[in-house]
Amino acid sequence: MKLSLTAGIGLFSFFAVAALFADFASFTASQPANVDPTMTASTGLTEFDAPAFVISSPGGSARCKAFPQENGLPGHDALHVNKDCAALYAPLANATEWRNNQDGTIAFADQNGKTIVEFSPGDGRAYVSVAPRSVLLSLSAAGVDLL
Asked: Are 95 and 81 in contact (CB under 8 A)?
C-alpha cells in the first residue's frame, strides 16, 4: 500500500508540474499587443500642437493662434499663423518666419524677410507689439496658467 501511495503522490506531482509548465508556455507564447502604426506627424498642424501662441487684440476680444516650427536656423523658425489672424492685422496672413532677436524681442516676418510685427516683453506674461506703432497686439503662450 505504501508503494501505491508514493506512486500516486509522484504521479500527481508530475501532472501538477506539467500543468504549471504548460500554463507558463502558453503565457509566454501569447501574441504582443497590437500597436496602431498610423503616422500622426504627417497630418499637419492642429490647434493641439505645441508650441502654440495666442495673438490677441486689446481686451482680448479677437484672437488667433500662431505655431512656430523649428527649421534648424538658430533664432529663426518657420511660422504658421491661422487664417483668422488677418482679422487682427491683415499683414499677419503673410507671416512665415518667427525670429528670436538678440534684444529679447520676437518678430514675425514675411517670406522676403521683412518684419511684419515685432513683440517686446510686457509687464505681465504676454509680449506686446512695439512695431509698427499703429498696431496694438499681444502675444502669449496658449493654455499657460502660472497662477
From this structure: yes
pLDDT tens-digit readout, 92-112? 999 999 999 999 999 999 999
Beta bridge partners of 69: 78
Structure confidence at residue 54 as a pLDDT band (50, 70, 90): very high
37-46, 88-97, 111-120, 134-143: least confidently modelled range: 37-46
Distance separating alpha carbons of residues 17 and 23, to the nearest angstrom? 10
pTM: 0.62
Give the CA diameter of the chain: 108
Q: Which helix (H) or strand (E) holds 78?
A: strand 76-81
Strands (DSSP E) along the chain, which ranges? 53-56, 63-73, 76-81, 97-100, 106-109, 115-121, 127-131, 138-141
